[in-house]
Amino acid sequence: MPELPHHRLLHGHIAVVTGAASGIGQAIATGFGREGAHVAVLDINGEGAAKTAAAIGTAGGKAKAFTLDVTDRSACREVAAKVASELGAVSILVNNAGINRRNAFAGDPDAVIKDWQDIMAINLNGMFNVTHAFLGPLRANKGRIVNIASIQSFVHVRTPNSPAYTTSKHGVLGFTRALAAELGKDGVRVNAIGPGLIETALNAQVRANNPELVKIFLDHTPLGRAGKPEDIVGPALFLASDMSSYVTGAIVMADGGYRAI
Asked: Which CATH number fits domain 14-255: 3.40.50.720, 3.40.50.450, 2.40.280.10, 3.30.230.10?
């Protein structure tokens, strides 16, 4: 008897992933492509986005790259229109684009002010801009929004960290809950993922130059290891698929148990 075809979790969905040129965003976009979604790969690094899209295509999936600076509200609207005309109506949005800095609040005043402006512009305003731009099709399709939050949506970790980052990630969780409450009547589910320390290009330099920082994290992590971008794919698939049809306003922690102790 022939084997039944594998039923792919996101078959028929059009999914937008921001910050998808590398790290967590790239892993999620790749995982979504593998599970049958047509993926719009968005990143300010257009060349990196194109590489992610090409890799998804090589693996047998469908993807198209779009260059986007999430801080540019009109550019977000333009990309949303392009995605609609070239791919169709979006039903999944993953807000992953984000940055971190490690300047103390009482440090260099100019650096602290720049950190605050840059981090809020990308981590919070950027999430607002992209979500607002895609709101029409998401509501029409009873869509799913997955926001990448952090353990710092709850705590300020004991390693050098910009207070702006912790504030922004608390904001991501608040935004998630507010939208879940408002958009539930439209059938739109809005959830977040809270990664712990994940080994990405974004923090590679810090990890290499400051092994003590990594040790502080791992000593507080029951699973005793840093995460990989692939560790976030499963939670993202769960929240974007029908497997989580009665889950909204929630945060799924993928932190190796960091918040448990």
From this structure: 3.40.50.720
